[in-house]
Amino acid sequence: MYKILVTGGAGYIGSILVPELLKAGHKVTVLDSFIFQQNSLLECCASPGFNVVRGDARDEGVLAPLLKDADFIIPLAALVGAPLCKRDEVGTVSTNRDAIGSIAKLTSRGQKIVMPTTNSGYGIGQKDIYCTEESPLKPISLYGKVKMEAEKIVLDRGNAVSLRLATVFGVSPRMRVDLLVNDFTYRAVKDRFVVVFEGHFKRNYIHVRDVARAFIHVIGNFDTMKDQPYNLGLSDANLSKIELCAKIKEIVKDFVYLESPVGEDPDKRDYIVSNAKIERTGFRTSYSLERGIAELVKGYGIITNSRYSNV
User: Which domains does the chain have, with CATH numbers?
Assistant: First the structure.
């Protein structure tokens, strides 16, 4: 049993991860600003091992006393996604990088950090060549750049693991509709069509529950995994956007998708990723892309508006 501090723990990933950490017997403190007015952790309040603090992860006065007793720190607090980061560049840098620097500065070397970064740091890859953890980092977006800077901060500090997440999908109590699989499936269910820009661009995908499982895997295998980055994605889901649409159409039969001959995707990432390194540690994903799409279709029978996004 560990004492774990999760910043941004009421977000899309944290709302899945925190209940799982509590089920595993850990004591969990969440620091979150609740800027999206979410109530996704209410079920956790019944657990005696749960504590929650409303506050900003950038505020060292709030952060320092919470860090004091933590065995593990999982810094999820971030502005996520190219549109949101472009809209608030100052907040992106201060939250996604500088707050991580504060954690590195305020913790002892004996305390462990497991942080999510992004495989969008690979930018534009070479055709048919898999990006590994040794591939050069060429982030295009501000989001990718500052997350790679944050990763360097924690790995240089030591006693840390970085999970380079693929594009996350699936239903969460703090739902996000703006993530690519979630967005396209929403359009398939609600609009029955989508127009795709630069549909040949490829990326990798991972279910939000597998992300939570990976954090728990790292905690259980920390000493053999520490001081390394790991790609985290579905090895059978390095798909182009058009290929993703075809997967959705297998489940939403009357979905129509068209590729536009003009226009650009503001998120220019285009690469395929190898997840062999984390698989060698014994981690295996449990949630396929098809299972996630089917789950989303059910979820969109409940969600009837677009407030569940970061844009």
Answer: 3-166+206-232 (3.40.50.720)
pTM above 0.90, yes or no: yes
In b/e form, how buried is each residue of 116-149, taking b as 16+ CB within 10 angstroms? Answer: bbbbbbbbebeeeebbebebebbbbbbbbbbbbb
> For residue 212, which amino acid is it?
A
Whether the CB-CB separation of 226 and 159 falls below 8 Å is answered with yes
Residue carrying the six token digits 């608030």: 88
Q: What is the pLDDT of residues 137-186, one digit of tens each?
A: 999 889 999 999 999 999 999 999 999 999 999 999 999 999 999 999 99
CA distance 143 to 120: 9
Sign of CA dihedral 102, 19, 211, 189: negative
d(CA 137, CA 122) in angstroms, rounded, equals 5
